[in-house]
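Q: Hi! First time doing this. I have a protein sequence and I read that you can turn it into a structure. Is that right? Here it is:
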Amino acid sequence: MRDPVTGFEYPASWQEKCQSQDQLDDVARGFSVLTASGTVLRRGYTTGTTAAAACKAAILSLRTEVSSVKIRIPCGLDVEVPVAARNGTASCRKYAGDYYSDATADLLFVAQAVVHGDGVNLVAGAGIGIFVRDTPRFHRGTPAINPAPLSCILRSMEEALDACGLSDVTVTVSVPKGEVVAQRTLNPRIGIQGGISVLGTTGLVEPWDDHLAASMLGRISTAHHVVLTTGRTGLRYARLLYPSHEVVLVGSRIGDALEAACGEIILLGLPALILKYINPHILHGTGYATVEEFSASPDFDTTIKKTLDEFFISFPHVHVVLVDRKGTVIGESP
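A: Yes, that's right. Below is the predicted 3D structure, encoded as structure tokens:
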């Protein structure tokens, strides 16, 4: 059985330990993950999926009352999301699954749709964060809505528009407690104020704490050629660049992953987590708050080379490959 979200092939021994066929069916559909103990953990929905559901429901409710909507999330799966919507106003609570430490769990999203404007128009309302300084990807004043969830939201709105037989709509999506909840996230540190970020590369929230511990280290320790990746972007490009290697998503647990690996090791991903693992003080004295902001500096390439050269001296058996969001290699250890 293969996880349709990550591509991980679940060992037969794990499946045999699970006592519920219904739960295994959810794993096969991608809505849950299976651990080595046979325990099944539910995936949740991202802020992006929740916002998309609220926006779609708001438009549909211009014609009829709505209690759930189907959303095609970025990883390609279709999910049915509960909502409450009537007369152009919809609400949807973020479902966190079994990710118990999710700071945005149960957060309420509210969307209001009006027949107005030209085509599909999305407005980020109160509780959604705004960038307060320029970054390589976002300009100051831009809502903190990442590209993948933005595409999901707009596609869902267009589907609703077609279903209603309308051509022009403006939807304002807000998060009533977003500004308060954002204080428990990294947003204030990375230059986002006023609310939460709308995120979600796959559309699903992983129950990281248990699932990675169960599957990650076992896969790494038995692989002769392994690529360790820190996020979804790295996962994608690692599979393209190294198709014959075992590719494992390790998140921020780089140290644990390197200790478990025993064959050929490649550490690949976007610069932030990898560089901060190699040198936790890499931003000191630069005047930048994040590695992404530092990447726009003319000193960044020199810093990468120096950092990777020093890492190679201590860890010559680990080949580090840094990529940007387009998959271009921007740094590589000797």
